[in-house]
Amino acid sequence: MAAEKPHMNLAVIGHVDHGKSTFVGRLMFETGAVPAHLIEKYRAEAKEKGKESFAFAWVMDSLKEERERGVTIDISHKRFDTDKYYFTVVDCPGHRDFVKNMITGASQADAAVLVVAAPDGVMAQTKEHVFLSRTLGINQLIVAVNKMDAADYSEDRYNQVKKDVSQLLGMVGFKADDIPFVPTSAFEGDNITKSSENTPWYTGPSLLDCLNELKLPEKPDTLPLRIPVQDAYTISGIGTVPVGRVETGIMKKGDNVIFNPSGVAGEVKSIEMHHEEVPQAVPGDNIGWNVRGVGKNDVRRGDVCGPTSNPPSVADEFTGQIVVLQHPSAITAGYTPVFHCHTTQTACTLMSIDKKLDPKTGQVKEENAAFIKAGDAAIVTIKPTRPMVIEPVKEIPQLGRFAIRDMGMTIAAGMCMSVKQK
Amino acid sequence: MGEVAATMKIMPTGVDVDLEKLKDDVIAALPEGAEYGTHEIEPIAFGLKAIVMVVIVGDGEGGTEGVEEAFAAVEGVESVTVTDVGRPV
């Protein structure tokens, strides 16, 4: 699968039932990512059953059945190629409790397609997803005004939805003028790969053209080294072996590194990946490594490994911008839920609600607010109950995002703005 | 509400854990509503291997939490990390 093309993670976001899954299926189908032999098989089946015209929906349904029978293997990674890039689709679940996974998981999206159904326009989840994508650091967006077939391919309707979505994007700080809008029908295939005859009034690029126009994100290997420790092992003949995924920077054999907040330091003796010794590790690598003079009880899950010369920031307090997704009542100072950030889960106390933001404008609505509720965004001061590493999102975005959980729910998502170090 | 494919990386407590048995044990521990999808054994480093398992869960309250907790309680499991979530095609 054309590994030499640059890779991008693409999130597909939008309100439930606005056609996200059909949209992803259509992209994969049009780019040849659905295996040819499967398409042939279903085409034959469709003909047999008297569906003379080969229906795209038939393929999607059949693929779903195939999966339910356990035939397909790689079910969670959807990949497709355009002329320029190789994409992995992050097809976001609808429920808010998955936001935690989007933050601590591996697939940080580099760009997103916001799917808005033309007949419905902007809905509750459209707003929430737009706000979240901003919080999660997704800066490149394409808007698909979808289900145009269900809106009679009306130019007026398209323009109205475009106007409403532009307004919403402007509110959260996107430059709506720079964001491409495409009238689509994922079901019929309009304007996905080429201009559709059904929308003669639209002369802009197709959706695939827009995907090719995306810019590659800055590589995280130029940032300082940060490896959150997933687990630490003692292996006979080797010693202490922490394992984890390199988030940013490069670690080479012989480097002097420190584990924070534990504070132990030493020289990197060896690095292994896929059971083979490697001279260096780069972002995305899942590695185990061994550091001279570091005992098993010196390092633990949640520690972050970085250069001794530029150690990971241990926060005494930090300020964060959060958006409250769900909470049964009101959140006030003193609230102490669990923060999920890289591999750490740390109880943190909300010290003060410094600024409550108006979700409509992004402007400060209230200084030193008494409480915040579901749907509110705010700048807050947070104090971890025990030492934890977190970095300002502007400096090391991979270590600056967090999810707040309590009562088995994801209460809020946020990003770290600044850190007051210990 | 549809369903979600969650990729979970399960680390054993040490290099001497029988991963085939551990795989069967975690599958047996799946809570109601969650379904085994597929898995593979991924070599990590210094003899350590991870079980990378795709589990299908409902797109509802709690997300992957129930499965994470159930897996973490299985003997021989050191940690459970959700590395990816998406919708199965």
Q: What does it look like?
A:
The complex is a heterodimer of chains A (422) and B (89). Chain A is α+β, with helices and mostly antiparallel strands and 422 residues long. Chain A has three domains: 7-213, 3-Layer(aba) Sandwich (Rossmann fold); 227-307, Translation factors (Elongation Factor Tu (Ef-tu), domain 3, Beta Barrel), CATH 2.40.30.10; 314-421, Translation factors (Elongation Factor Tu (Ef-tu), domain 3), CATH 2.40.30.10. In chain A, 19% of the residues lie in helices and 34% in strands. Chain A contains seven helices and 23 strands. Chain A has helices at 20-30, 36-48, 56-68, 99-104, 124-135, 155-171, 207-213, and strands at 7-14, 78-81, 86-91, 111-117, 141-146, 181-183, 227-235, 239-245, 251-252, 256-260, 264-273, 276-278, 280-281, 286-291, 304-307, 314-324, 338-341, 344-357, 364-367, 377-384, 388-389, 401-406, 409-421. In chain A, strand 11 and strand 12 (276-278) form a beta hairpin. Chain A is globular and about 70 Å long. Mean pLDDT of chain A is 87; it is low at 70-76. Chain B has one domain: Alpha-Beta Plaits (2-Layer Sandwich). The two termini of chain B are 15 Å apart. The relative contact order of chain B is 0.37. Helices cover 20% and strands 47% of the residues of chain B. Chain B contains two helices and four strands, in the order E-H-E-E-H-E. The longest helix of chain B has 10 residues, at 19-28. Chain B is of the alpha+beta class. Chain B: Residues 3-88 form the Translation elongation factor EF1B beta/delta subunit guanine nucleotide exchange domain. Chain B: GO terms for molecular function: translation elongation factor activity. Chain B: Keywords: Elongation factor, Protein biosynthesis. Chain B: Promotes the exchange of GDP for GTP in EF-1-alpha/GDP, thus allowing the regeneration of EF-1-alpha/GTP that could then be used to form the ternary complex EF-1-alpha/GTP/AAtRNA. Chain B: This is Elongation factor 1-beta. Chain A: GTP binds at residues 14-21, 91-95, 146-149.
